[in-house]
Amino acid sequence: MRLVRFPPANMQLRRAQLVLMLAVLLPTIAMTAVGIVLLVLGATTTTLISGVLVLTFCTSGITGYILGSIFVGKGASLVRVQNDFVSSVSHELRTPLTSIRLLMESLRTGRLEDAEREQVISLLGRETERLETLINRVLELSRLQSSYNYARERLDVTSLVEEAVAAFDAATLSNPTKLATSIQPGLEITGDRPTLVRALLNVMINAWKYTGEDKQISIDARASGRWVEIAIHDNGVGIDRNEQRAIFEQFSRGRAATDSGAPGVGLGLAFVRTIVNGHKGKIELTSRPGATTFRIRLPRRRQPTHVPATSKVTRNEAVMP
Fold first, then answer.
1. What are phi and psi of 71, to 5 degrees?
2. Residue ranges making up the domain that contains 62
3. Beta-bridge mates of residue 168
4. pLDDT of the residue at 230
5. Of the candidates 6, 32, 96, 224, which lies 20 to 30 Å from 179 by C-alpha distance?
6. Angle of helix 114-146 versus helix 45-109 axis, rounded to 10
7. Are the C-beta atoms of 214 and 235 separated by less than 8 Å?
């Protein structure tokens, strides 16, 4: 039986866009010219009405073409993102799988000494754990992007930052680093505490990984209009301007980060962006060698306005002059 091969999805979308242009846009432009001629040269009421109807129809056709082009363009963008994601995941999975295959081949030959066999088994366990961690993180990120329901609880920003700092201290026990904090008192937001702590922790861990021995990391929070702005500063290697947008994508790492040899697969900032977007917030980055700042802006919780109670006078009460 002969298999039918279909062209790639992005090629099909390009063809659909071309067909849409030829079938809708070009005839509509021609009819628009006809409608204009009818309006200009029309000497009777019937001709004028015909011109108006033709132009109305052409307006609808052009509107349909614009909407169709938008949908086709979004489809092409989605296909491109999916292709990039599959390519990135395949690349990241290939390394531990290759290591596992080589280690298992070493065990299969049966030529290893006892000490070597124990070492190979230990390496197998480490690579398997690495693979499991990567898969779990990809699944968790996918859940946050698609089906996660963020809690909407009242959060004090000071306690939120303190919890993130405590988690940071626990995660960096191998090289303890003192964080300088400056939090404006009384700030409140509405959101999901565990995911927001995770977002702040990811940024702080990134700052810790990509700074040298003299680590100078600070975090501050303040009100900025209707936003609460939480900024994390570090004196690390910096991120090139051309890479600053891409580092929020999955499995994307800056060149300086890769050259420094710091561990990571490029999912941390993708988590941060997803969580901030889930809270209707914004994240901004400014960076140069020796000075990097991530600013997370979250909607500030509105303080309830108290209406002063007014005294009521009943008919049976005497009104004093």
1. -65, -40
2. 9-82
3. none
4. 96
5. 224
6. 160
7. yes
